[in-house]
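Translate structure to sequence.
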């Protein structure tokens, strides 16, 4: 009984809006009804309502393509497009954004140019031990950096290879960083998730992208401490693969790892996985994705 209550409580938040379900059901009945009797139409509505009570996966008609609306209900929302929460006004010539990460209160971008030249710019919350004075310091591994306070409680760090740029150039770049969002390119054109599931981390490199989506009840933590209720989404460029859904064998004790893999347009592979999250949400996120 305890496990049953926990299962029902977990899926309670995922239940679709009853009014939206009934509206969609009535619409399908009107489109498909030709000479059917009124009693037959009422039976179809009863089946849809029964499916809503049994689980969201039953709401998808067998003769219609899979859709996020069928799997996640009327409360699903578009995932906002990614953006760095800062703008750099004066980058050294030839440097372009090659990879980026946004996670909680930390955001960073790596800018690369010819012959291996690079510069990493990161904006974080200030800590008591942050030396945000603009002084250039030399680090191990032939790197150097400067840290500068750019707003109350916010610090920008500019890091590069030792000797790649003059010391004063690092400070000049740091002074041009403003807390104005900059849109960045994603390998996904569309992604949706149920209401209450938000992005906790989003990062991209040259040929891959990673998102971590978590429900509201999951406390904000460091990315390394991933809660099993979260959903991990990755997009990689690679050879086409057949769509698959994998689950751990029943003999393996909980928690189970659930994974859905799809081939998107443009030759990219989408993988969505969760440890303890709801399978209906897992499939809904996967079905909503469209490659760029």
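Result:
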């Amino acid at each position: 009984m305890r496990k049953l209550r926990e299962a029902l409580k977990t899926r309670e938040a995922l239940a679709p809006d009853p009014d939206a379900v009934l509206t969609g059901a009535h619409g399908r009945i009107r489109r498909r009804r030709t000479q059917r009797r009124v009693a037959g139409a009422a039976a179809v509505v009863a089946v849809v309502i029964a499916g809503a009570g049994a689980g969201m996966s039953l709401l998808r008609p067998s003769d219609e393509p899979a859709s996020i609306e069928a799997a996640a209900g009327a409360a699903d929302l578009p995932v906002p497009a990614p953006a760095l929460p800062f703008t750099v006004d004066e980058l050294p010539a030839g440097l372009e954004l090659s990879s980026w990460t946004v996670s909680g209160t930390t955001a960073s971008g790596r800018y690369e140019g010819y012959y291996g030249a690079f510069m990493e710019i990161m904006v974080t919350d200030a800590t008591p031990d942050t030396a945000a004075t603009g002084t250039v310091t030399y680090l191990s591994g032939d790197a150097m950096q400067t840290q500068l306070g750019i707003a109350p409680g916010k610090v920008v760090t500019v890091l590069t290879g030792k000797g790649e740029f003059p010391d004063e150039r690092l400070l000049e770049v740091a002074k041009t960083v403003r807390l104005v969002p900059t849109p960045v390119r994603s390998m996904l054109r569309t992604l949706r998730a149920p209401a209450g599931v938000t992005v906790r981390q989003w990062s991209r490199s040259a040929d891959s992208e990673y998102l971590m989506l978590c429900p509201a009840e999951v406390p904000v933590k460091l990315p390394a401490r991933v809660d099993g209720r979260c959903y991990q989404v990755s997009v990689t460029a690679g050879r086409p693969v057949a769509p698959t859904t994998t689950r751990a064998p029943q003999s393996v004790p909980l928690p189970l790892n659930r994974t859905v893999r799809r081939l998107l347009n443009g030759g990219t592979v989408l993988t969505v996985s969760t440890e303890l999250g709801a399978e209906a949400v897992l499939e809904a996120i996967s079905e909503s994705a469209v490659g760029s």
